[in-house]
Each structure stands twice: as C-alpha cells, then as structure tokens.
Amino acid sequence: MAAGIRDVAELAKVSAGTVSKYLNTPHRVAPATSRRIADAIDALGYVRNDAARQLRAGRSRTIGLLAFDIANPFFIDLAHGVEQRAIVHGLSVLLGNSDENIDRESRYLDLFEEQRVHGVLVSPIGSIDRRIERFHRQGIPVVLLDKMGDPTLSPSVSIDDQSGGHMAVAHLISRGRTRIAFVGGPEGIRQVDDRLAGALLAVAENPGVTLEVIPVETRGVEDGARVGESLLLRPPAQRPDGIFAVNDRLAFGLLQTIVTEGNVRVPHDIAVIGYDDIEFAAAAVVPLSSIRQPREEFAAAAVDLLVGEDMSLDETQHPQIVLKPELVVRASTSHAR
Q1: What pLDDT, in 10s, does the model give residues 64-81?
Q2: In the structure, what pLDDT confidence band is assigned to residue 311 with cuts at 50, 70 and 90?
Q3: For the chain, which domains are there?
Q4: What is the DSSP string of 69-126?
Q5: What CA–CA distance (Å, rounded) separates 70 from 212?
Q6: How many CB atoms lie within 10 A of CB 43?
Q7: Which of 14, 165, 224, 280 sits between 20 and 30 A of 215, alpha carbons compared?
Q8: Helix (H), strand (E) at residue 192
C-alpha cells in the first residue's frame, strides 16, 4: 500500500497538519522540521495525490502565467522570477505565451480556468475585464502584468514606460544628438505607445531637436536589421544621429547592420539606446545602452499581490503598483558631441 501523509508524519515525529503545511507552504515550516519531513518522504517513497487534493480544495496550487511575447528575453526573465517567488509561497507555475494573438490569449485563459488554477498573472493584449469577472466568480484572483487595469476589479504591476521613453531620449539629447529616430511598433501596443509618448515629451522640451518615427510591425532582431539597411541607403547627413529602439532586440539588429555593413561609428556617428536591458545587452557588437526594467522586483510584486488578492477578492480598490525603470549607459551612447 502506498504511504500516506500520516505515515510520513509518524516517521518524522510531527503532526499530519505539519506535513500538510510543509507540502503546501514550506516557507512556514522550520528548517529542521522540513529536513525531517523530507527525509521521511524519501524513505517512504511518498507521492501526494494532487488530483484528489485539488478536487477537494476546488483549486490547484498552480498559478497561470500568460506572457505577451515569450520571444522577448524580458518575459523569460520575468517567468523565472515569478517561478522563484511562487516556490516561496508553495506554488508552481503554468506558463503560456499569447504571442500578441487574442485567440491564443483566450485559449490559454480557458485552459487556466479548466485547470482551476490558484490564480492568474496575465499581460493582456486588450481588455479582459469580463474574463476577470468570470475568474472572480470562481474565486480565482487575477493580477495584470505591465498594464494598469480597473482598480475596482483587479490589481496590477506595471513599468512607467513613458518615464522610460523620456529617459532614453533625454539621454541621447544630453549626448548632443538632435536628429533622433524612434524605432518601434506596431501602434496600439501599450508599451510601445507609452515609450513613444515619453520620447516625444523629451523632444518637446528641447527646441531644435527632431524625432522621426520609424514603424515596424514586429520587434525582433531581423526587423532592426531591416531598419538599419534602410538607414544606410540614405546620405550620411540625412541619417539620424541618435536612435531609440523600443526594445533591445531591435537595437541589436540595428547595431549589427550599421556597424558591420555600413562602417558607421557607434556612437560617434550614430548613438543607439535600447529598452529592457536584457542579458545580452552588454555583449552586443557595441555594448548597448538601455533602459533597465526591474524584473526581479516586478516578478516578486506580482506573485505577492496574487497571493494577497486570494484573500481580498471583495475589496473595492485593488493596488496598482507602478515601478520606475533605470538608465544603463554603455559604449553605444557614451561619446558626447
């Protein structure tokens, strides 16, 4: 017969309730007690029946995380941070990627609902207020990621991207750049729109500085390379002398193309700054200046909000946490004119 919780408790010389606490909220069990329980579980070969436990509880110990664009290393780092914080709360993570597709987003939210997840962290494409209300009727809390929602409906954690866009372009201007290009898109993506708004504000504050918007449909390295090729077709005097790419992947493609194919000196001829400060930014062909998003703080705040929300679904006002980005200066903008 398979070992049960009472067998583990007897061998570890603790109560069955302590074993249950260890399995569900291990951070609440003393280290010495945790070691005894872990040893007992190993000795007995105990495997808990999650399906039965979740059926009794009505919900699982898994949270659903729905990312906006998992191809962006920012979301990979965010998922890792969410997982690390979830473990502290005795939770596991089910990861989905909407890939900016509303139908895929809907399918993943259906899956989370079917799985009776403990809660949902979602970076939505559009409004999902009706879906949130449906989750709430089932006692499933929802936290919006990187988008402020209706504070009467759900909490959120987001980055002040308008501040980040302003910071990026103000930095280029401080380096003596006056012909600035904003590379990003498509229009309607909240993060893109906010970063552009911040860039426009910085330009408006500095007479004599211009901003050219160069739209892209997607935001990958290949898109950046195509923009770089189009800039190299222009006479040098008609090129921007500063470029703000809406994310680091675009900036990588731009840098690779203009430096290796156009013999452009970065930052002497063109200064380039990206956004996200992903892991590889410092290893670009020219180390890339970027706007860093506080990923660890973001992930921890999101999971902590979700766990707290689990006990306050009836609150009339839910927290809206907005985190500030940070300027990281490297060689791609370090030269001042």
Answers
A1: 999 988 888 888 899 999
A2: low
A3: 5-48 (no CATH), 57-158+295-323 (3.40.50.2300), 161-293 (3.40.50.2300)
A4: -TTSHHHHHHHHHHHHHHHHTT-EEEEEE-TT-HHHHHHHHHHHHHTT-SEEEE--SS
A5: 29
A6: 13
A7: 280
A8: helix 190-204
